[in-house]
């Protein structure tokens, strides 16, 4: 069994060319010109393979290679092709290319199978444009709600629904839901985005658990004033409690243990002038852990912190939860299959957890799911210098191919 490395490299490089920031990494946000260009490339590759192409009510793109029995549930492989701003060429794309290459292999080798193979391409996993994340797979599981389409906006004030309509998609969340029992298994390959595999000299990681995500939008509303003429004891400086919150969240996450993390990643300050007291600050909060009780404990401590900040500072504090996904265990059965296949193929592997969120965590709600990691050079990701050697990527693809062949009948 050997996949075509040159073809894999061609796909990765071609997809990376549909980019809003040439020379500064890959930037491809959902429902943009670059998204459309990449989608057309993916469709073209699916057509060349001979897959039947269709799109659902959220714009998920699928290519089907039918099995002998079309009534049987499908085996699905794929990932996302959107990126962060100034990201790298492998995040998401590696998993999508995995699906394309497996489909090519089945066609070229003339392999007959009972279950249908589906290759899926998600275009809004990162959530950079609208701040929601993992949107495509949430639509498939029924976790995306109509109000999110109308109440979520990009930085230009365009709603998610309007962006989709301008793109040419009429949102139909009901039609995007997957029928229960229609997917036999979902496989996703992803770069590790960390240093563990390289540090341990292993070639793939077989993920056991994906961390839960708890995200918030917090707004501190004070009052702007002249920086020179407003006395210190007469200020409603919105930045002070925001800064204190960021420092304390760091402490709370460390004290929580179990590898939990808490991050203030975005901050908007208004009026944002050197001679004006900040009257408004908006921050993002991202909490992650592999245990739900740990996430809940951090949330409780965060609420206590906010209460104390309200008493200490003369500002209004508004908290809005933007996303919550519980920690998710991958299918033990498929993990065992992949472990056995790795040993048969002579691939050095280790069991590990994922500190990043992936579509696999939503897909696990509707189908037995697995997530396979391949090494990231220097543990770097979401960066223009993100890199995975193509030999390493090929080994991960071959491992998933062996798992697909086991389950596809």
Major sheet size, sense and barrel closure: 9 strands, mixed
Which CATH architecture of the largest domain is right? 3-Layer(aba) Sandwich
Count of domain modules = 2
Distance between the termini: 17 Å
Helix content: 25-40%
Radius of gyration over C-alpha positions, nearest whole angstrom: 23 Å
Outline: globular
Strand percent estimate = 15-25%
Uncertain stretches: none
The H/E string reads HHEEEHEHHHHEHEEEHEEEHEEHEHEH
What's the CATH class of the largest domain, please? Alpha Beta
Which fold name fills CATH's third level, the topology of the largest domain? Aminopeptidase
How confident is the prediction overall: mean pLDDT? 95
**What do we call the CATH homologous superfamily of the largest domain?**
Zn peptidases
Q: How many DSSP helices?
A: 13
Number of strands: 15
Structural class: alpha/beta
Please render the helix and strand layout as text:
Blueprint (H helix, E strand, L loop, with lengths): L4 H12 L16 H17 L2 E4 L5 E5 L8 E7 L12 H16 L8 E6 L12 H7 L4 H6 L8 H8 L5 H4 L6 E9 L4 H4 L4 E7 L1 E10 L3 E2 L12 H18 L4 E10 L5 E2 L2 E10 L2 H21 L3 E10 L2 E2 L2 H14 L3 E6 L4 H5 L5 E6 L15 H18 L2
Parallel strand pairs: 3-4, 3-5, 5-15, 6-14
Antiparallel strand pairs: 1-2, 2-4, 6-13, 6-15, 7-11, 7-12, 8-10, 9-11
Helix pairs in contact: 1-3, 3-13, 9-10, 11-13
């Amino acid at each position: 069994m050997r996949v075509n490395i040159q073809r894999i490299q061609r796909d990765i490089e071609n997809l990376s060319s549909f980019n809003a920031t040439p020379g500064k990494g890959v930037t491809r946000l959902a429902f943009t010109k670059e998204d459309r260009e990449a989608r057309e490339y993916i469709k073209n590759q699916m057509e060349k393979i001979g897959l039947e192409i269709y799109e659902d009510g959220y714009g998920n793109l699928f290519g089907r290679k039918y099995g002998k029995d079309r009534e049987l549930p499908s085996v699905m492989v794929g990932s996302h092709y959107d990126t962060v701003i100034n990201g790298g060429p492998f995040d998401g794309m590696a998993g999508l290319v995995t699906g394309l290459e497996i489909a090519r292999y089945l066609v070229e080798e003339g392999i007959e199978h009972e279950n249908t193979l589906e290759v899926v391409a998600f275009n809004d996993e990162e959530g950079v444009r609208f701040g929601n994340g993992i949107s495509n797979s949430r639509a498939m599981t029924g976790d995306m709600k109509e109000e999110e389409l109308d109440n979520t906006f990009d930085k230009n004030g365009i709603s998610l629904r309007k962006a989709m309509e301008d793109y040419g998609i009429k949102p139909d969340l009901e039609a995007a839901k997957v029928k229960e029992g229609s997917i036999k298994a979902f496989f996703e390959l992803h770069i590790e985005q960390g240093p563990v595999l390289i540090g341990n000299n292993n070639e793939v990681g077989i993920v056991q658990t994906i961390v839960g995500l708890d995200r918030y939008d917090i707004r501190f509303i004070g009052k702007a004033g002249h920086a020179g003429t407003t006395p210190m004891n007469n200020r409603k400086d919105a930045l002070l409690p925001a800064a204190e919150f960021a420092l304390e969240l760091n402490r709370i996450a460390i004290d929580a243990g179990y590898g939990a993390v808490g991050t203030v990643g975005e901050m908007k300050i208004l009026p944002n002038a050197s001679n004006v007291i900040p009257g408004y600050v908006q921050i993002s909060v991202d909490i992650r852990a592999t245990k739900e009780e740990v996430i809940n404990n951090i949330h409780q401590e965060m609420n206590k912190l906010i209460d104390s900040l309200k008493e200490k500072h003369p500002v209004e504090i508004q908290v809005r939860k933007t996303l919550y996904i519980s920690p998710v265990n991958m299918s033990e059965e498929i993990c065992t299959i992949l472990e056995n296949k790795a040993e048969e193929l002579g691939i050095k592997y280790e069991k590990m957890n994922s500190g990043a969120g992936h579509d696999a965590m939503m897909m696990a709600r509707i189908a037995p799911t697995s997530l396979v990691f391949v090494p990231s050079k220097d543990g770097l990701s979401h960066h223009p210098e993100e890199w995975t050697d193509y030999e390493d990527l090929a080994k991960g693809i071959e491992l998933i191919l062996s798992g697909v062949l086991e389950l596809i009948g």
